[in-house]
Amino acid sequence: MEEPAAAGAGSQPANGNGNGNGNGKPAGPKGREAFHAPAAEASESVPDPPPTHTHSHEDPGARASGEGPRMGILGPVAIANELQTHVPPCASGTFGECDSEVDVLHWSRYNCFLLYQMGTFSAFLELLHMEIDNSQACSSALRKPAVSIADSTELRVLLSVMYLMVENIRLEREIEPCGWRTARETFRSELSFSTHHEEPFALLLFSMVTKFCSGMAPHFPIKKVLLLLWKVVMFTLGGFDHLQALKIQKRAELGLPPLAEDSIQVVKSMRAASPPSYTLDLGESQLAPPPSKLRGRRGSRRQLLTKQDSLDIYNERDLFKTEEPATEEEEESAGDGERTLDGELDLLEQDPLVPPPPSQAPLSTERVAFPKGLPWAPKVRQKDIEHFLEISRNKFIGFTLGQDTDTLVGLPRPIHESVKTLKQHKYISIADVQIKNEEELEKCPMSLGEEVVPETPCEILYQGMLYSLPQYMIALLKILLAAAPTSKAKTDSINILADVLPEEMPITVLQSMKLGIDVNRHKEIIVKSISALLLLLLKHFKLNHIYQFEYVSQHLVFANCIPLILKFFNQNILSYITAKNSISVLDYPCCTIQDLPELTTESLEAGDNSQFCWRNLFSCINLLRLLNKLTKWKHSRTMMLVVFKSAPILKRALKVKQAMLQLYVLKLLKIQTKYLGRQWRKSNMKTMSAIYQKVRHRMNDDWAYGNDIDARPWDFQAEECTLRANIEAFNSRRYDKPQDSEFSPVDNCLQSVLGQRLDLPEDFHYSYELWLEREVFSQPICWEELLQNY
C-alpha cells in the first residue's frame, strides 16, 4: 500500500484491466493472452519483490531464457512493431517464463536495469518525441467524433515501458548488485538536468499535459503521462523521506536549531477518532444501564459522564489507577457507536490497541509509563513575540519599541516570564531566513553582489517551468476537475477517457460493468497522480526557496484550486474511500501467472475483500495537505474557506477513521474557527476538543475564542498584492537576464577606456582624416560652458 504519510511513498499495484473490453473468457496458461504487449497497462505502480532465495542475484544466464533474447532486443528497437512485441514483456518481467509473482517482479526489476544500461530509455525518448510531433495522428484524432484507446497504441506502449523503467530503477533496496547504484544515480542525473541541449524530461511531460488540455492532441493517454510525470518528479527531486533529510541539512547549513520532532513519525503514531453514537442512544444507556455493566460507583459514574470524559481523543489510561480490565460486554457496547456514522460528530475514542493494566500486578519502576502528552511541540513565531510585547507595552507603558524583543523595562514580572516562555518555544523556519535574505538583496544589490544559486534538480525544474507555469497549473486543475467524482459531464470539458474507452462500445451487461469499473478506476488514478504531484512540487519548491512555493501557490489559487478541492470533498467521502473499483484477478502480476477465472456479473459486484481503497485515501490526504499548504498564514485564502462554507464539508470528512486525514481536516477547521462565530463553536465543542488534542499549539493564538471583527476584504486584497509584488521582484532579480542598465557596472578609468581595442572597419584609415575634420576640428567647443555643466 502507499503510505499516506508521504506523497513520495510507494503505491498499490495497478489493475491490469486496462481497456475494459475483455470478453470474460478464461485466458490460456498463466494468463499470457490476457496480458499481451500493452501488458504494461499496469502502469499505476510496480512494487518491488522481496528478496528470494532462489534467484535473488544469481547470474541471469543460468535461467532458461538466457541473455541472448534480451541482448537481441535492441536491434529493431526503432521499428514500432518489433518494439511492441519484444520490449514491453521484457520490462514486465518476462512473465511467460516465471512461475510465481515474486519471480515476475524480480525479473521485471532486473530487466529494467539491463534495458537502461543498453540505452533503451534514450531510444524510447527519441521515439516519444517523434510520436508527440506526429501531426498526422493529431489531425486524425481531431477528425474523429470520439477518440478511443486504439488511437494511442504506440504512445501507451512507450509510456508504459518508460514508467516501468523509472519505477523499478527508482526503488532502492539494501542488497543490490554493485553497478545498480551507479546506474540509478546516472539515470537520475539524466532525468534531472538538460542533456544535449534538451529540456529535462519532466518538462517534456508537462508540455504533453498542456497540449492535451488545449485540444491539440486529444489522443494522448493522459493517465499514463501523469503517472510517469509524478514518478519522474519523485525520482529526480526525492520523496518525503529525502525531503526531511534535505530539510535537516539545510537548517544545519543556515545555523538554525534542529527540528523538535519528525512530523512523519508523529503522524504515524497518532490514532484515529471514532464517530459517536446518537444522542438518544446515549441518553437511554444513561437512564437504564444493564446491571451486568455496572461495576460500582466508579464504573457507573464513568458511564454517566461519558460525554465529558470522552473529550480525550487519545483515551490515555492512568497507569497509577488500579482499575479492573473492561469486560467483553463493555467492549461490545463501546463499539456500538462505530456503526452509526450519520449522527452529530462527536469525536469519541475507542482504542482497543492499548489494553488496561492488570489490576493485581504490582507497579515496578521498569513498567512505569507516564501518560502521554500532546503530540506536537508548540511553536512561536518572531511576529507573535513582537505582537505580544506591543500589546503589553501599550497597556503598561503607553508606547512601543518596534521590533525590539529584548528590552523589558517597565513591564511587570509576569510579562517577563511570558516572554521567556515564548522565546523558549521560538521557531525560525527556513522560509523566514530566505525572506530576510531576499529583502537584503533587494535593498543592497550592488554591495552584496550577485547571489550564488546552486544548480540543484529542483532549481533546474523551476527555471524550466517558470515562464509556462500558469499554463501547467491550469492544465492540471482542468484534468483534476474532469476526474473528480462530483463533476458533471459537460460538452466543453476535456475528454480524459481517451485511453480507456474501446473502439466498440460494450453490448453485454458484463462488458458494461467492466468498462464502468475501468472508467472509475481510471479517474481515481488520475486524481491520485495529480494530487501527489502538486503536493510534491509545493514541498520541494518551499524548501528550495519560499517565493518559488508562493509563485506556484498563487497560480493555483488564481485557478480556483481551493473551491475545486472543496467541491471534491462535497460528497460522501466514506463511500469514496471504501469504493471497490478494481478487479483483483486482473491485478498485475497476478494476471500473468494464474489462470484467469471466468468473470461474471456476480463476481464483479462482489469486488475484492479489502475494506477500503488505499488509492482513494491517499488522494484525499494529499488534497487536504494541498489545501493546508495554500491557506496556511494566508487570511485572504482562509476567508475563501469561510465564504465557500467549507466547515460542514470538512466536518463530514471526519467520519473517516484515519488519523492523518482527520489531522489535516482539523487543521483546516482550526484556522477558520475565529470567523465562524461563537454559536458554531458552542455547538461543535467535541470538534474543538479534537483540534486541541491533535493539532499543534501556537502560543498566543486565539483560534478557540477570538472573533476577527476587524477583517476587511480590502486588507486581504492588499495582502495578496504585496505577496505578488515580492514574487515578481524575486523572479526578476534571479531569472531575468540581463539586469537593468542602471545596475550595470561602468568603467571610469581613463587609461583602461583608451586602452581598449576596438574593431574598426577595413576602410576606416582611408577616411580617418575626413572624420577628424568633420567631427572634431570643425566643431566649435565652448570650454567654459563645458566645465560649468560637468
UniProtKB/TrEMBL annotation:
Coiled-coil region list: none
Pfam families assigned: DUF3402, N1221
Domain Far11/STRP N-terminal: residue ranges: 50-310
Compositional bias per record (Acidic residues), positions renumbered to this chain: 325-335
Annotated GO CC locations: cytosol; FAR/SIN/STRIPAK complex
Matching PANTHER family: PROTEIN REQUIRED FOR HYPHAL ANASTOMOSIS HAM-2, STRIATIN-INTERACTING PROTEIN 2
Similarity remark: Belongs to the STRIP family.
UniProt-recorded name of the protein: Striatin interacting protein 2
Organism of this sequence: Jaculus jaculus (Lesser Egyptian jerboa)
Primary gene name: Strip2
